[in-house]
Amino acid sequence: MFKAVVAIAVALSPATTCAFAPSVSGGRASTSVQMGILDDISNAFGGAVQPAGGAKKGQIAVVAGATGYIGKSTVRESVRQGYKTIALVRDKSKVESDEGKMLYGTFYEGAEVVECDVCDADKLTETLKDISTEAPGGKIDAVISCLASRSGIKKDAYAIDYQATLNCLESGRAVNARHFVLLSAFCVKNPWLQFQQAKLKFEAALEAQSDMTYSIVRPTAFFKSVSGQLEVVQQGAPFVMFGDGTVTRCNPISEADLATYLIDSITDKSRLNKVINLGGPDEPLTMKKQGEMLFEAVGKEPNFFFAPLWLFDAIIDSLQWVADTFNSETFENAAETGRIGKYYAVEDMLTTDPEEKFGTMTLQEHYNKIAVEGQEYDPYTTMFAKAPTKVAEEEKDKVAA
């Protein structure tokens, strides 16, 4: 019961995805093939046609965490900018299956999907060495880490946000990769959660080494993390918020804009060896304002439910008491999940400096879009959306035809 309440609380929190932060087929076109076609066209027109990345042709960018919400958009943007893009995935069959194709769409078109478990440091280094042999001068231009633990509990956080990410760094250093781009999180600025401390521990390791240059990007929140109540609002349920709905403010960033920023950081010298807080173009948005925007998008009158903030403390304290009394890891993890929910209910995820705001898509534009088209399924941020099925996709194709 406690865990169910905590799970709901986390799902309703204004920026949960700050914490946790493509389809592939046997016949996909590889980046090298696309570049060859572009070369042929360019030659025919006197060299007038260039790939999106221009001088990036042939340079290799390796994306870890490529199946994640931001990771798959980063893969697509890397391809768009002209990099020879390597998407590291733990289980290639899951991406290439019918279900994987429905979940990931066309995110991986033009990229090379390589199966590699980033938790296996030796295997990762071996994989990067193999990739390096195909790189100009035998050197990978960039490693981009979009890794993030799903749960945020201590064991997962230190396994992924710290150790697996450290494996990517150490493997990159072992093969003389040039630049490391880290997708971190804005919320580490006030670190009282396990996953935040794990992220900061890795950031310190990245900043302490000198073999690779780096860019650390800390986004405020993702659009998906503030879209979790779409389905319930469409069904007539109230929009749930904590306190009076004005306790926190944020300016989330779209996945496409964030992916662009991450890939641009590979060559942008102003971001060299920097830690960058990053939000979207919106002015500060309270949770109540987000609810009003969502109701406007779905064409319904605003209907709010205000949950008291003390609910978090009651749940967390009870879970922690059981954890301490019975030395229970299960209840300790549940208490940490509750603390994660509370964090996002009371902390701003907001940048106000113009230099820390990026992108063109506003949250209202995003809401208007998903109100009509529906949103991408994600079991961690959407409350009642269902994963796509083959039957559903076939019916969708029939309607489109």
Automatic annotation (TrEMBL):
GO terms for biological process: chlorophyll biosynthetic process. Residues 1-19 form the signal peptide. The lineage of its organism: Eukaryota, Sar, Stramenopiles, Ochrophyta, Bacillariophyta. It is found in: Plastid, Chloroplast. This is Divinyl chlorophyllide a 8-vinyl-reductase, chloroplastic. It comes from Skeletonema marinoi. One of its GO terms (molecular function) is 3,8-divinyl protochlorophyllide a 8-vinyl-reductase (NADPH) activity. Keywords: Chlorophyll biosynthesis, Chloroplast, NADP, Oxidoreductase, Plastid, Signal, Transit peptide. It catalyses: protochlorophyllide a + NADP(+) = 3,8-divinyl protochlorophyllide a + NADPH + H(+). The keyword Ribonucleoprotein does not apply.
